[in-house]
Amino acid sequence: MATGFEHILHWRLLAGSHPFPGPDGGTCINEAAIVAAGLPYQTIRSSLDCPPCFSRPLAAYALGLNDAMPDEQRPRLMAFVLRLSGSADIYPIEERRMQFLALESIRRILPPLLDRAGFADLAARCDEARELDAGVSAARDAAWRGSAVAQAASQRRDWRRGALASAIGRSAAAAVRSANDARCAAEVAEGAASFTEGVWDSAVTILEQALAIGRQAPDIDLVQARERLDAARAGAA
After folding, report:
1. Does 7 share its domain with 52?
2. Mean pLDDT score of the chain, rounded to an integer?
3. Which end of the chain is less congested by CB atoms within 10 angstroms, N or C?
4. Residues 42 and 81 in one domain
């Protein structure tokens, strides 16, 4: 993944909805990408708010990660700020990106979570899925089993088992929804992060690989991007 320059941009990514940055800077990843590209600033609450030159699935997944990542992990997304504007492509490519984000979240993020709960059969089905339909089917079964085990654990007051099973239910249900909403793919990672290691590594790698599909954003000069971000921060002070 392209890293090493993000600290040069002097910008802080923030989760959720917030006023335009003051002296300390700070926006979500898509707002930062808009400013860095030299486009007029606008508030982004969903990928539908992004300029048309932004790939909707990529912007949705990036925004989902931006809001889900803990503060110490979120700066890793700065490496993608210069790669979103101009990434929009034709419908078949956007559909391929959506399917990639959904399937890879099922294949890479759900199995360790399922293994931890002892659901080895479902972990294997998710890991071995090569088509989205198979992955969604496995995730749907995982969501059902997780919810059922969580309910049974609650009745026994087995809170630790119940918390893990609930996380499986939430993450797997998000994986099912991700077939139609890329932001839900980020929710898969959010639900699993408290129980398995390396989740954010996997999520960032998935974003990196999804960005490699189809049209690539045009190069944005790093110095110009930094100047634009600095000017926006100064103007909002």
Report:
1. yes
2. 90
3. C
4. yes
